[in-house]
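Q&A log
Question type: sequence-to-structure
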Amino acid sequence: MTNPPPIPADPGGSTTAAATPLPAPAPIRVAPSEEFPGEVEMSLVDHLEELRRRVLRSLLAVVVAAAACLVVVKPLVRLLEMPAEGIRFLQLAPGEFLFVSFKVAGYSGLTLALPWVLYEILAFVLPGLNRRERRLVAPAVAGSALLFAAGLAFAWWALVPAALRFLVSYGADVVEPSWSIERYLDFVLLLMVATALAFQLPVLQLILGALGLIRARAMLAGWRWVVLLSAVSGAVLTPSTDPVTMLLLSGAITGLFLVGVALVALVERLRPQPQPSP
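Response status: OK
Response body:
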């Protein structure tokens, strides 16, 4: 059996296609996760177990803070009675002040433990957020805490005194004001908490605007609906029916909405614009 003749070389000095080696495939580069840095794979059971631990720690923080407030509950009640100058408070049922003490301690403990509760929520949610969403966490949490405190201060210095002055003066020439301590503290605490929650509106607007879900121009175009909804919110959130408190709270909500629109407009101005393709 004779050997096959050798393959002739190309006159130009190059070999034929059969002799040309194929190029090596480019290696697949697996870059670290830039969208979800520090991502850790966890099963559903692990997520539920972590959620259970964080919920228990949050509840423990609230209980400890409430127990600490219960020790000094009488000074706290005297502090809450300060806006109602000249009003006589009554205990209308046996043990009423005892239940009021637990209620005041619970509200105060929840307020004091709120930073720790926010930390536990962020520690659970943060691994599932991408880089863009993580950049919103710190300013959103800081702004939320500041606005919560501002809402409490606004209710304490403006809403509660205005509401009490109206309610006392309305029937001063007919009845002598002697109030139940439980009803009074329910009124004050609910008004303060509702106002503090209403003050979170700019934070919600800022998050939605930063994520590109809503624009400042679209929000500003619906200002009539905002005024209507703020009036309804003022009527729903205030525990009393006096028009002074409703107008103050609805005006504050409208002002906070405009602040949120300005923040979203600022975010849109600072956002890098896409460069036109050449």
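Response note: Residues 44-270 form one domain.
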